[in-house]
Amino acid sequence: MEEERLITYYIRNEQSKTKAVSYSSFLENNISDMWSALGASVTISWRGAKSAMCLTTNCPLAMDVVKRFLLDNDEYGAEMQQRRDTLKGLFLELQAITDGDLIMKLYWKVRNYDIFVDDVPYAARSKVRCESVSVQRYDVVKCINTVTRRKSEIKSEKKNIAANLPKTKNSDPTMPPLNNCNGNNCGDIICSLSTQSPLSPTDLSQAVGAGTGTNSGKPRFSCPHYAQKMLLNLNALRLDSRFCDVEIKVGNATSVHAHRAVLSASSAYFEAMFRPELGLSEGKQKTVTLHSIRADILELLVEFIYTGQIEIEQSNVQELLAAADMLQVPEVVDGCCEYLCRELHSSNALGILRFAEAHNCRQLAEVAANFVHSNFPKVALEDELLDIPHTLLVKVIASEALRVDSEYQVFNAALRWIRHDVVLRRQYVFEILSHVRIALVPVGLIDQAIAECRDVSLKIALRSVRKDLTSRRGQLVPLRVCPRVCAKKSIYVIGGSRREQSAGWTPTDWIFESVIKYDIFRREWIESAPMEIGRILPGVAALGGKIYVIGGERGSQILANGEVYDTQNNNWEPMAPMNVPRCEFGLCTLGGTLYAMGGWIGEDIGGSIECYDPMKNAWRMVGDLPEPKFSMGVVSFEGLIYIVGGCNTHSRYLTDLISYNPVTNEWTKLARMQTARCQMGVAILDRHLYVVGGNSSQQEVLRTVERYSFDEDKWSMVSPMTVRRSSPAVAAADGLLYVAGGDQPCEINFYRAQITIASFECYDPITDQWKVCPDLPTSRSEAGAVVV
């Protein structure tokens, strides 16, 4: 039958086309839900109900729904009399055709909308959308207009649906027609309901528009700029002292006029002050006096309350935060905290940390503490350290998150704080030193501190600590020998080659993809994940906890690509290649970026400088060297890049030391080395630049070490290494200088090719002595080294 095919189509759509359910079973399962829903929000499916009930000739429950609706709405009063009269007339027609859709629409029309019944067929269509979705209110007028415009389209869609349904041979003679006019456009309300399709969600959203609300069933208009305009008008009234009902004074300063309601709406402090039920005297006074706050700060806060804007600067941020915290204006507190976070520096981090803790600004305190821990070597040299209380000092130096190159930096910071006021602070000596890993501080540095101490009591205390340390008793301070979590470091030796001793002139070479790291605390070598590409003479640098290995040579090919090693996940990832391939070039980090310069570029010696941005994963050319060179040493220190030694285009060995300022693009010549050299190792330790080994202009493999003072612009010789080395891997950590591998002359025949060595040693600048360390697992040369 045609009607049953139609209802099956509707129900199939209603249940997401998963299963077709007959109209009779659907009605049986849902009519009770419709009944119970009349006293609450309707969440049942109205489409399925319409499809079933429009074709039902005998439905007592549906009739009871209408009767109950007509009888239970006396609370609407005389205003609903016309609507009830109309419903009574429709009820007679429903005896012939039970239109469940009409019943629900009439109910919700009278319940939620204050318009005439004639609008019900159109307005109510926008009311319920789908099964188990709560009813929402929409703009009735727009819905009516939209449905009217689409009336002809809906009829066409209805015909297309009926035409596409499969025809059945059997029909139920008891089923009535869809309406009383057999499809003709008679204008009857029931006819209209049965011949129109419901709006789709897209059509409905277009009909409703963006300017309606859904709180009370009536359309609402929204003005997005009204609140801002009202604030501006209120502020204008305040500035003109119009309608102001409170005067706020700060001492003898100028008064600030305001409105109690506005202040109370923005500040819990003022809201409590002006609440009459609390019985505070300020709630009845026209003039209120505030203490412990400056007049200009109060004016700024009141202006913010009225405008939402405030000027935060270095001169007022601390007092502004304190006042906003007192007056309970959290938005200003947050703004001040953000400002202080941006202004964090080694010279003010401890003060900001104290200030944040005093005002319970937890997020600011956490950011400041992380900054202090991450930059403790610099923070410890600032004068601000000398003025903090001993409780904060203990809290800082006790943290496992302290990032230091050596525990001596913590020891020295503690002594510096004590010496600032030794009379009052020597009582805290053992308490403070108990949080220093004293067992990791070289005994020679402790002896030096004792010798420089002028206070007798402090000197005796330090001698006691030293004696307790050497005896390994740990009675005065704990002898903790494990480094801090964030202070644990490893030396990574990456890539390189191995050249074995050979009876002939041509040695056998191996190029390494392998990476090994030296655990400084455990004094052992550990294998790490290998690189994708083995390379010799690469550029190696550490940045942001990751290791960058770039360029180099493999066989006869000079490389431009690079790889990034994640020390946490122990894996390698590719990175953007340099603009030109480079070998025997210089690489360093500065300001969160990498700088690559010089080196062999194919058959030519390069003089260009390019910069890598890790955030963009891109290289760009930034300048040129004063002259092309290769095999030089490159480091960065305090915002400048230093280039030492190497060879130029005439293969001349250099003693030059020059500095480069990337900001101004300026070059400066500095003191020259005593020995011209290339293929050496370089590293920075304790404000000194160390140049280790290399080849001299006489083609001699060197074991000498030169040290440059950045403060004095002066070179000096230190103790030589135990063995000769060229192309060694050099790194500095924990106050020591480490040198691994390299090439040395063949012992059998000096004129044969050099061979690689596995020797590993470290230099102590305090004692000016070299100490032998565990050898490399495999001899290697022309490798890169970095500390992470």
Description:
The protein is of the alpha+beta class. 34% of the residues lie in helices and 20% in strands. A 4-stranded antiparallel beta sheet has the order 8-7-4-39, with no helix packed on it. Strand 17 (600-601) and strand 18 (604-605) form a beta hairpin. The protein is globular, with a radius of gyration of 42 Å. Residues 1-28, 30-80, 89-150, 167-214 and 503-508 have low confidence and may be disordered.
CATH architecture of the largest domain: 6 Propeller
The shape, in one word, is globular
> What value does the Rg take, in angstroms?
42 Å
The CATH class of the largest domain is identified as Mainly Beta
What share of the residues lie within helices?
Answer: 25-40%
Average of the residue pLDDT scores: 77
Structural key phrases:
alpha+beta; Potassium Channel Kv1.1, Chain A; 20% strand; disordered N terminus; 4 domains; 4-stranded antiparallel β-sheet
